[in-house]
């Protein structure tokens, strides 16, 4: 079987092979398959067993795969013609900041092909293959089976499970590219695991569309709010002193009516409010009416009906009940559209404010809207302090400025650079600032609904802010929320009563225009999360938009993974040919930048900055077998060290400006809540896999989801590169076992010394791996089962992280041996995920070499590191960023007027 639209990338290095400092012999699996299909030298195999060399010797040996290229060998043959028609439409650049709306969970059969050599798949039409072939990266190494085989799911029984002969062939070093042929081993088994819900046959196009976005597109043109002239201020009105007006007619003479506070509303003269002066009048009207009485009068007679049923009706039964009366009407289409439009077009504004004054009646309408917000126990805990004085605004500006500086100092360099360009307040640029407070005592001691949740008071005030914000938008007023304040400092500076909380500081004024997208999105600071990520049906995790079948996070993720885009790849090769340097002179960097282009579907590709390393931490039951010299509690202690900033990964992350985030996916002990720690414990450590499975399949899936969600969060937060890291005492034992399963290499060859163990302990470790494999006989075609048998929680999470990154077309820089093991599992789940992977470094652990060979990934850094924590990936980040930056900044022969060869 073949999938003609898919082409594999073999990022076979055209550069000189790595020259390891010390090596013993070649691994069982040289990446020879690429040689079958490409004229360029295949990536040089690295030794399977590498004796941990003396660090000093390493430091003295400058040879490295990337740093010492041989340009002659590296002339990338760019395609004769750039690819013209990508199979997959490039992402709409205008909406590039939006995360892709995931496709409906499809019938994904997790296949376990045997992709050989480098397998960064390329999405390409058949006609593109020729140019793609000509490049050193894009090698049409056979046609991989598509990951999604709907018919396989529809008729799993018709699938002919492939004999594991291929795995044997692999183990024997007979890898052939065609081994990717239908290695659809036991699809039904994996599908059953991964597709708990009935599969959804609808094509992607039929997925319910998130309503807000399409509507925004449709109406963007007609709305054109920015073209509306700013309302002409009415100075006469603005200067009119509002007169006291008894707006509220006393009511409830019998004492049973609505309790209206009989304070005369200080409303402006009605005539001063035209044309929209009805709003205050309406508000007054509301006070005059007695909502309870009106309700009572209009009470439908059928209200008693449900009481007849002794048992509460189930939702489905309720739905079947014939409605006695029609429900209260909603708004008509135009009115509804106006409501939705104001929500869609509300923006937080910091730029482009005008100095036009805001007429009193306009501000009054806005404040009235705020004042109609819902509140806990109807406590209405807000106050609005309207500030116009330049002096007060200046002092507020100073306070905000000092908080801005403090925040900037706390940021990783990659983020700080971005932040420097951002405007985060417009205190001095706006004629009106409004402080919105919450009084946590308002409503008295027994405020309904606040009994156990004191935070409901500030929440209520936040709702008032939203009302204000929307009403302001409808008036053509921009609002910018500033939270760069020390609240207590502000309370003092403004002379507010000490018992008040400050909920919001708002800058309000007329603006030149309302941007269509959040300013932070436009600046690349963040991306919009799709609605489908956040809507769950019945239970958390059963994600489904109304009317759609619940989908499984892993299925959804796999469905979104695509090969590299051939058009962008072609453009990258073309550009590299025209850059002012000899063709191929950037060696492996050219391959990386082409991969980044194909991944992002953009040429030049986005510079992968900011970046974040996610350190997945977990413990291992196999620790009990004496496979490491370190006590298990060191995992938790090192997590504390990462969070305290004292580990090697922190130093390296600081050097390259990356964020460090630590994910507790399975540390044995409870960890205190700390900034930077994501508490996502699936279970406190795995079970000892020498006596039983390490994990249940459900736990594996939960840990994979942790990884996917971590990738989603980091990408939505604006990160453009993800780095894997891990911490788990004894996890090299699990890594070795996983690598054995996926390479077929003997445990003695892939089991390393981890954190440093003596011969006796090493022999025991090898024996432990062997025994576990004998006990479980893990089937490589069942990646979930493999992880359940001998994996670790951090391996599963890293596999998910990698799949998540790939599904979001974001590069994932892999760290050491555990990341390599996780990548093997991820590849077994979705082979095309490798398109997003970059091997950061080559660890001194022999298993890592075997894993990289199997993955066909060439490491960028080769310094005999064996630490984990993401350290090798962090070192490689700069190389990856340099590769992308060169594509942006290096002049072309034509632009620089340099004569070509
Ligand atoms: C509670 C809250 C605090 C905010 N604080 C700030 C702030 O201090 N500075 C800033 O520039 N934007 C601030 N914002 C605005 C957000 O950045 C903005 O709402 C977000 O980027 C989405 O953009 P949009 O409001 O235009 O949709 C705040 C928003 C909220 C809801």
TrEMBL record:
Domain Nitroreductase: 344-510
Pfam families tied to this protein: DBI_PRT, Nitroreductase
EC number: 2.4.2.21
GO molecular function: nicotinate-nucleotide-dimethylbenzimidazole phosphoribosyltransferase activity; oxidoreductase activity
Enzyme class: transferase
Record key words, sorted: Cobalamin biosynthesis, Glycosyltransferase, Transferase
Record region (Disordered): 18-49, 67-134, 146-333
Biased composition (Low complexity): 67-124, 146-179, 235-250, 268-289, 303-323
UniProt key word Transferase: yes
Ranges of Acidic residues composition bias in the record: 204-220
Protein origin, superkingdom: Bacteria
A GO biological-process term: cobalamin biosynthetic process
Active site: 869
Catalysis: reaction(s): 5,6-dimethylbenzimidazole + nicotinate beta-D-ribonucleotide = alpha-ribazole 5'-phosphate + nicotinate + H(+)
Pathway the protein takes part in: Nucleoside biosynthesis; alpha-ribazole biosynthesis; alpha-ribazole from 5,6-dimethylbenzimidazole: step 1/2
PANTHER family xrefs: NICOTINATE-NUCLEOTIDE--DIMETHYLBENZIMIDAZOLE PHOSPHORIBOSYLTRANSFERASE
Functional description taken from the UniProt entry: Catalyzes the synthesis of alpha-ribazole-5'-phosphate from nicotinate mononucleotide (NAMN) and 5,6-dimethylbenzimidazole (DMB).
NCBIfam families, A to Z: BluB, cobT_DBIPRT, PRK00105.1
Family the UniProt entry places it in: Belongs to the CobT family.
Name of the protein described by the UniProt record: Nicotinate-nucleotide--dimethylbenzimidazole phosphoribosyltransferase
Organism: Streptomyces filamentosus NRRL 15998
Chain's gene name: cobT
């Amino acid at each position: 079987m073949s999938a003609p639209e898919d082409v594999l990338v073999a990022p076979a290095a055209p550069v000189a092979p790595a020259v390891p400092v010390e090596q013993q012999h070649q691994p069982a699996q040289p990446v020879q398959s690429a040689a079958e299909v490409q004229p360029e030298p295949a990536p040089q195999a690295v030794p399977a067993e590498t004796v941990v060399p003396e660090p000093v010797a390493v430091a003295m040996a400058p040879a490295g795969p990337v740093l010492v290229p041989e340009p002659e060998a590296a002339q990338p043959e760019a395609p004769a013609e750039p690819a013209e028609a990508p199979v997959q439409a490039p992402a709409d650049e205008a909406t590039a900041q939006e995360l892709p709306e995931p496709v409906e969970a499809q019938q994904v059969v997790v296949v376990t092909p045997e992709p050989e050599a480098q397998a960064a798949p390329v999405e390409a039409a058949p006609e593109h293959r020729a140019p793609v072939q000509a490049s050193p990266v894009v090698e049409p190494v056979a046609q991989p089976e598509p990951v999604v085989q709907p018919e396989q799911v529809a008729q799993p029984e018709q699938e002919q499970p492939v004999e594991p002969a291929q795995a044997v062939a692999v183990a024997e070093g007979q890898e052939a590219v065609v081994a990717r042929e239908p290695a659809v081993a036991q699809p039904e088994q994996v599908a059953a695991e991964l597709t708990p819900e009935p599969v959804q046959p609808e094509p992607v196009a039929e997925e319910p569309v998130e309503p807000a976005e399409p509507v925004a597109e449709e109406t963007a043109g007609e709305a054109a709010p920015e073209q509306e002239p700013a309302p002409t201020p009415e100075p006469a009105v603005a200067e009119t002193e509002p007169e006291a007006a008894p707006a509220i007619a006393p009511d409830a003479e019998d004492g049973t009516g609505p309790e209206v506070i009989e304070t005369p509303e200080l409303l402006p003269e009605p005539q001063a409010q035209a044309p929209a002066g009805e709003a205050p009048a309406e508000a007054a009207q509301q006070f005059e009416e007695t909502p309870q009485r009106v309700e009572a009068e209009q009470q439908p007679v059928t209200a008693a009906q449900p009481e007849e049923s002794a048992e509460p009706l189930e939702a489905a039964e309720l739905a079947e009940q014939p409605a006695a009366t029609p429900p209260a009407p909603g708004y008509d289409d135009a009115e509804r559209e106006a409501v939705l439009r104001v929500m869609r077009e509300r923006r937080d504004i910091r730029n482009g404010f005008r100095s036009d004054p805001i007429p009193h009646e306009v501000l009054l309408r806005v404040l009235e809207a705020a004042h109609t917000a819902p509140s806990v126990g109807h406590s209405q805990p807000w106050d609005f302090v309207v500030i116009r004085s330049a002096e007060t605004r200046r002092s507020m500006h100073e306070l905000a400025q000092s908080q801005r500086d403090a925040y900037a100092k706390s940021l990783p360099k990659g983020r700080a650079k971005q932040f420097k360009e951002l405007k985060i307040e417009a205190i001095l640029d706006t004629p009106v600032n409004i402080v919105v407070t919450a009084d946590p005592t308002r409503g008295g001691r027994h405020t309904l609904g606040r009994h156990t949740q004191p935070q409901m008071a500030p929440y209520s005030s936040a709702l008032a802010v939203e009302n204000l914000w929307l009403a302001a938008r409808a008036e053509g007023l921009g609002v910018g929320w500033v939270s760069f304040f020390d609240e207590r400092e502000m309370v003092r500076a403004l002379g507010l009563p000490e018992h008040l909380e400050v909920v919001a500081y708002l800058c309000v004024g007329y603006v030149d225009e309302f941007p269509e997208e959040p300013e932070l999105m436009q600046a690349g600071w963040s991306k919009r999360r799709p609605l489908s990520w956040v809507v769950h049906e019945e239970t958390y995790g059963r994600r489904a938009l109304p009317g759609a079948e619940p989908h499984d996070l892993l299925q959804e993720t796999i469905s979104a993974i695509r090969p590299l885009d051939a058009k962008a790849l072609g453009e990258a090769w073309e550009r590299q040919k025209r850059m002012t340097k000899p063709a191929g002179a950037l060696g492996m960097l050219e391959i990386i930048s082409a991969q980044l282009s194909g991944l992002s579907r953009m040429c030049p590709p986005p510079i992968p900055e900011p970046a974040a390393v996610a350190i997945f931490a977990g413990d291992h039951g196999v620790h009990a077998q004496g496979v490491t010299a370190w006590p298990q509690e060191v995992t938790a202690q090192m997590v504390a060290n990462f969070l305290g900033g004292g580990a090697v990964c922190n130093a390296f992350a600081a050097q390259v400006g990356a964020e460090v985030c630590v994910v507790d996916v399975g540390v044995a002990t409870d960890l205190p809540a700390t900034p930077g720690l994501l508490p996502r414990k699936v279970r406190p450590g795995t079970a000892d896999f020498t006596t039983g499975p390490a994990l249940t399949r459900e736990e594996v899936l939960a840990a994979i989801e942790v990884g996917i969600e971590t990738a989603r969060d980091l990408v939505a937060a604006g990160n453009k590169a993800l780095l894997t890291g891990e911490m788990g005492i004894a996890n090299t034992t699990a890594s070795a076992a996983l690598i054995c399963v996926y390479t077929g290499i003997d445990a003695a060859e892939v089991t390393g010394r981890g954190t440093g163990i003596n011969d006796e302990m090493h022999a025991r470790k090898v024996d432990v791996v062997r025994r576990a494999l004998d006990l479980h006989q893990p089937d490589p075609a069942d990646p979930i089962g493999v992880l359940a048998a001998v994996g670790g929680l951090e391996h599963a999470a890293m596999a998910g992280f990698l799949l998540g990154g790939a599904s979001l077309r974001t590069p994932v820089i892999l760290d050491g041996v555990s990341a390599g093991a996780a990548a093997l599992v991820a590849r077994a789940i979705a082979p095309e995920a490798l398109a997003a992977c970059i091997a950061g470094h080559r660890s001194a652990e022999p298993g890592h070499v075997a894993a990289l060979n199997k993955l066909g990934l060439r490491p960028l850094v080769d310094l005999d590191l064996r630490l984990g924590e993401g350290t090798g990936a962090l070192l490689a980040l700069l190389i990856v960023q340099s590769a992308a930056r060169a594509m942006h900044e290096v002049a072309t022969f034509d632009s620089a007027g340099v004569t070509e060869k």
